[in-house]
Amino acid sequence: MKFIYQDLLNFLAEKPAKELLSEKLFQLGHEHEIDGDVFDMELTPNRGDCLSLNGLARDLNIFFGKAEPFKIFEGDIESLNLNFKNLSPDACPKISFLEIEIEGSINSYKSYLENYFSLLGNNKTNLFTDISNYVSYELGQPTHCFDANTINHQLIFENRNCDESFKTLLGSDIKLKDKNCIFLINNEIISLAGVMGGASTACSTNTKKALVECAYFTPEVIIGKSVKYNLTSDAAHKFERGVDIQAQEKVLRRFIEIVNDHAKIRSIKIQKFEETQAQQNSIPINVKKINKILGIDIEEKEYLSYLSKLDFGIEKEIVVPSHRHDISSQNDLAEEIARIIGYNNIESKPVEISKKTDEGFVNVKRLKNYLIKNGFSEVINFPFTKDKDNESISIDNPLDSNRSYLRISLKDSLIDNLLYNERRQKDSIKLFEISDLYSKNNNIKEEKRLGIIVSGRRGYNYLDFSKKLDHAYLSELLNQDSTNQAFDIEEISRTELKTKKKDRIFYIEIAIDKIPEHLLKEAESGLDQSNFIKYQPVSEFPSSIRDFSFSIKDFKQYDSVISLLSNLNDKNLRDSFIFDFYENKKLNEIKVGIRLIFQSNINTLSDDEIQNSVNRLLKPIIDLDSVSVPGLN
Amino acid sequence: MSTLDNIEPPLITEVKGSLHPINQVKDYLINMLAQMGFQEVDGPEIESEEFNFEMLNIKKSHPARQMHDTFYVENKSNVLRTHTSPVQIRSMLKSKPPLAFTSAGKVYRKDDDATHLPMFHQVEGIYVDENVTFANLKDLIHQILHNLFGKDVEIRFRPSYFPFTEPSAEVDILSENGKWLEILGCGIVNPLVLNNCNIDSEKYSGLAFGLGVERIAMLQYGVNDIRDFYKSNLDFLSQFK
């Protein structure tokens, strides 16, 4: 909901500056942003009563007092004799109709009405509809204007199952399904009640006589309808949150007054249909309870004074005003008091919770620790898949058809993760995921499982660089030998994977409760990190690899070479590691191979840029006596 | 004199993998709460509407229960839990006050855009005892946020609305650029929820709070795009060693 700062000031006795008004709105729980003179409110769903200037002013009364800035029509109004039948009084316990006819030309809009459209960016349509929208802005009660000449038979309201099309007043055709609140004439739907009127009975600039409908629809029958039919409806937004069932006459009288401001009125007639008397809610006065909930010490007099300023009636009990659908308990009243005092002004009081010694889910922590120590990275995947299995749980309302089921294995997700990293030039991949998986077999079954996938080099050190991650590696990881093959290690075929890589892929999936205790014992618990690193955005540009083999003839230089290689630093150098070490006793020479991986965060590095970095990095090493890189100029 | 015989091969440093950053933050929060006395509890991700909504005073008419907000499964027989609160409900049904539970894990909402994911993580806590007040809640929230963001962090409480707490609050911290950032939701447990769990709400009261793990992780690590956490990119994950 948006409002103009000056418009709200008109409803307040005092005229606070924007900053003070903003501060108090936040204190009351009314989040907002300010753009010039326009406040864009983000109200919580329980505060439908604040979706108007009048509603916000009621809440702000305690700070700034409330003014009654507008006039309502005070004269007598003839009774209307409308042929109307309410077939669903539970959905609409109270409804009023105003028939209003004007004559002559329409004056240009007064500044208050003109500003509503120009400053808030609303579109004008016709006098009656424009006034309807404006009254809703002022008082929070939506009304709907029919062109009275189109209501030529019995008007029926009903909340019933529908299977028919309906053209809205904005011209869109919607197919109504399931239960909807509708107005009908001659069995034809003319309005989706509480959401949007229809094209066939809409007012136009030529309309001289309007039938204004002003109703209370129970929130339950309106909720979800505008989203379901993809309609933007301020009326539905308000009805969903609850409007004031007692406000109808005041709203229609204000409507008349604004029409009167802009045109000559020929006739006005009004009729009210009330199926049940609205119940007044009341709550016992109990300031002790309020103090107990909040941890404060407020006097009863002060407490009642606060509530009184929020329009609560103070009688034998506290009477809840008809616009406050959100108040029914002492805790609700406590929140009212806390809002007025200000949450930030309530003093904190220490709380001592007696400690439990439970260590939590130690086995999972140990397992993760073990895998991480062995170079595995943990991944987390979404559980959705397009693949259906007899045991798959189906999602009734998936985001799309590719996410219609819950996965029953971690395998496909981990294969996707592996291929993704291979495409990013990774040649040693060790990933794991631990997740609850769900399947059905009469009942829903839950199991926490571990999935491990490996492919490529065993590692980047000179001992592991040429070895591959394989069945033997996973067996060793799981402490399996030829006599103990408790887990099935699966080789994943690359045939279906659309990849040119040749490295073999191995996978294993195990239920957590099947993990042998001896594996868990090896890893102590507690991976808990006590500080948070600041991460560097990942480059989207390709990396380039350069391998160099150093020949060291004078072994006195060996330590210097290793030290320099271990401390390489260049803005484009992403990673480096010694992948080869060889002592050639015949030639009395040591060979050290290093891989340099270059990557920039801002561009694809050119050969020249890489060469410049290489020269800079290697110079101090090849300047050492007897150290050379054969083949390097 | 250096000879081939006394050359030490290059040191093999153990290359560690990494715990997922979201789980690092989740574990950090759970450990912090455990230090305060909260016991970790676990529960299913596929939940009944009764536990996910009704026991928490989320009525049938609440927008969260619409098909466009919640994933329903197996012909609407169950839902993917939209928060970890049902875990606390299940735990409260099995316990008697005083009790203090924390639940953490994956939750699901029908949302998928640049700033919202259909799956994310929450850590929630609940404490029920005699005479638990809003003033106590404030103290606890201060402890949590001071632990996460330092003693000097500026904290703001705003009234908010959750069906399962009353009064309810959202809590913001003041960021370095002078803007308030929403960090968590909290409140006094609605007595209806205590009654639903067979706890005498006349005798006992409770406080509850919930944090979005991704949000805390983004702030702590400086990650700007929530989707980065779920690409399984080793260049990204390996930074969180």
Which structural traits does this protein have?
heterodimer; A: 633 residues; alpha+beta; 5-stranded mixed sheet; B: 241 residues; 27% helix
Provide an overview of this structure.
The complex is a heterodimer of chains A (633) and B (241). Chain A is built from 18 helices and 27 strands. In chain A, the strands form seven sheets. Chain A has a five-stranded mixed β-sheet with strand order 4-13-6-12-7, covered by helices on one side. Chain A has a five-stranded mixed β-sheet with strand order 5-8-9-10-11, with no helix packed on it. A five-stranded mixed β-sheet of chain A has the order 17-20-21-23-22, sandwiched between helices. Helices cover 28% and strands 27% of the residues of chain A. Chain A has 633 residues and is of the alpha+beta class. In chain B, the strands form two sheets. Chain B has a seven-stranded mixed β-sheet with strand order 1-5-6-10-9-8-7, with helices on both faces. A three-stranded antiparallel β-sheet of chain B has the order 2-4-3. In chain B, a hairpin with a 5-residue loop joins strand 8 and strand 9. In chain B, helix 1 crosses helix 6. The model of chain B has no long low-confidence stretch (mean pLDDT 93). Classes of the chains: A alpha+beta (633), B alpha+beta (241). At the A-B interface, helix 2, helix 10, helix 12, helix 13 and strand 17 of A face helix 1, strand 3, strand 6, helix 4 and strand 7 of B.
Task: Give the SSE map.
The complex is a heterodimer of chains A (633) and B (241).
Chain A lengths: L1 E3 H6 L7 H11 L2 E5 L2 E5 L10 H12 L13 E2 L4 E3 L7 E10 L7 H10 L6 H13 L4 E4 L7 E13 L5 E13 L2 E5 L3 E2 L11 E8 L2 H4 L2 H4 L5 H8 L6 H15 L1 E11 L7 E3 L2 H8 L5 H10 L3 E2 L2 E3 L10 H12 L20 H12 L3 E2 L5 E2 L19 E2 L4 H13 L4 E14 L1 E14 L14 H7 L12 E3 L12 E7 L5 H5 L22 E9 L5 H9 L6 E12 L4 E10 L8 H16 L4 E2 L5
Parallel strand pairs in A: 4-13, 5-8, 17-20
Antiparallel strand pairs in A: 1-3, 2-3, 6-12, 6-13, 7-12, 8-9, 9-10, 10-11, 14-16, 15-16, 18-19, 20-21, 21-23, 22-23, 24-26, 24-27, 25-26
Chain B lengths: L20 H16 L2 E3 L4 E2 L1 H4 L19 E2 L4 E3 L4 H9 L5 E10 L10 E12 L3 H16 L5 E8 L2 E10 L5 E10 L1 H6 L7 E9 H9 L12 H4 L4
Parallel strand pairs in B: 1-5
Antiparallel strand pairs in B: 2-4, 3-4, 5-6, 6-10, 7-8, 8-9, 9-10
Helix pairs in contact in B: 1-6
